[in-house]
Design brief:
The structure holds 2 protein chains of 2 kinds.
Chain A (H helix, E strand, L loop, with lengths): L1 H25 L5 E9 L2 E5 L2 E4 L5 E3 L3 E4 L4 E6 L4 E4 L4 E9 L6 E15 L2 H5 L4 E4 L4 E4 L3 E6 L3
Parallel strand pairs in A: 9-10
Antiparallel strand pairs in A: 1-4, 1-6, 2-3, 2-5, 5-8, 6-7, 7-9, 8-9, 9-12, 10-11
Chain B lengths: L1 H17 L1 H5 L20 E4 L2 E4 L6 E5 L9 E5 L2 E5 L4 E6 L2 E6 L2 H13 L6 E6 L12 H13 L6 E6 L6 H21 L7 E5 L20 E6 L1
Parallel strand pairs in B: 9-10
Antiparallel strand pairs in B: 1-2, 3-6, 4-5, 6-7, 8-11, 9-11
Chain lengths: ~160, ~230
């Protein structure tokens, strides 16, 4: 019993260090979710196991891990007009995003590993609020059309 | 991945819980996987198998803000099987060992702490409506030239602008002809913006024919308000 627990403890330590990479790698990389509109300081994405520097105008793809350095900010507008800003020292994954401009169907799921994220919800949350979800390691936030900030302290 | 990780975190905390060292520290924990804190609520740091591990984290927190109209919407926050609704501006909800803790901040406190974060939000989407002469795919109404100027200025003032153009018609004529006419109207505005040096790659034009009138009418009714291209600048 003890051995099993120790093994899972080791597993946990390994997972903590690799969880971000794993999330980015196991999701499809093709869909464009939005665009970086505001970049202040140093912002990078982890995409296809590669770190990219981000400039204003670059695309945000489904599966991207967005990483901001100290004193850095990243402002993003998604296709459904959801507006997001990641604050300093943040690590955020866009797990899922789709949006039909005609029916306003789709989904948005983002995970805040650590840091802060300001959100002004868009057309998706208006039409299908139950399809818009933000997670941290300890909580799940469902959106009912609103502005809010999520802070997560990660591991 | 996240689910597996959460599971192993729970197991990990269970391991701390059975440790005699831990029990003697006068600490508490929750079997649900809540962070472990000492009697003062401070995080306990444990050393195990060469790894130094912080057994708990500062709380995660959600801060609800007033919307553009001054009224707050609502968020539903779930943790440890409990769901809490937050629906007043400047209320905050933090994870705590025994569930949630709700607090109120003032507008000043939020501005001090998060002013920079909120200042880095992208600009809101702005919509322009360009009206057309009856039956024409290319002729704008006289008033439309002012709107075109405003639209051009808005696009040029933005970082990485993206433009969605949706053409519409009134209900005069056949449905499919109007679908085509509405697409041509959207294309006319694309061509005007291109002539100002705005890159075609950032524009996305579609037509909705008479299917989405600004003013609802019976069929075959001439209605100036419905002969339009809606342009959303993101």
């Amino acid at each position: 019993m003890y051995k099993v627990k120790l093994l899972s403890f080791t597993l946990q330590v390994l997972l903590i260090s690799s969880v971000n990479i794993a999330i980015a790698e196991t999701l499809p990389q093709i869909e464009k979710a939005g665009t970086f509109k505001v970049i202040s300081g140093s912002v990078k994405t982890l995409r296809d196991s590669t770190i990219h520097n981000v400039d204003i105008g670059d695309s945000v793809l489904v599966g991207d891990l967005i990483i901001t350095a100290a004193s850095s900010f990243a402002g993003i507008t998604l296709y459904d007009n959801t507006r997001l800003t990641a604050g300093p020292n943040s690590s955020i994954v866009i797990n899922a995003f789709s949006f039909n401009t005609t029916t306003h169907d789709g989904e948005l799921n983002a995970h805040i590993n650590k840091g802060s994220l300001a959100v002004i919800s868009g057309q998706l949350a208006k039409a299908n609020p139950e399809k818009v979800v933000f997670n941290t390691n300890t909580m799940t936030v469902g959106v009912r059309g609103t502005e809010f900030i999520i802070e997560a302290h990660g591991e | 991945m996240v689910k597996i990780k959460r599971y192993s975190l729970t197991v990990c905390i269970a391991l701390f819980a059975v440790s005699p060292w831990f029990a003697s520290a006068g600490s508490y924990w929750q079997s649900s996987g809540t962070p472990i804190r000492d009697s003062n609520g401070a995080c306990v740091v444990a050393s195990l198998a060469k790894h130094k591990v912080t057994a708990c984290n500062p709380p995660d927190r959600v801060i609800l803000l007033p919307g553009a109209n001054g009224k707050a919407g609502a968020v539903l926050i779930s943790a440890q099987g409990i769901t809490h609704r937050l629906d007043q501006a400047y209320k905050t909800l933090s994870t705590a060992p025994d569930g949630f803790s709700e607090q109120s901040l003032s507008a000043d406190q939020v501005n001090r702490e998060f002013g920079q974060l909120l200042g880095a939000l992208p600009q809101p989407v702005v919509t322009f409506t360009i009206k057309f002469v009856s039956g024409s795919a290319t002729q704008l109404t006289p008033a439309a030239s002012t709107v075109i100027e405003q639209l051009k200025a808005e696009v040029q003032n933005r970082d990485a602008p993206e433009i969605r153009l949706i053409g519409h018609t009134d209900s005069v004529g056949k449905l499919l002809q109007n679908d085509l006419l509405s697409q041509q109207r959207a294309q006319t505005v694309v061509d005007i913006l291109k002539s100002y040096g705005i890159a075609p790659e950032v524009m996305e034009a579609t037509g909705r024919g008479e299917r989405e009138p600004a003013v609802a009418t019976a069929d075959n009714i001439s209605e100036a308000a419905n002969r339009r291209v809606e342009v959303r600048v993101r």
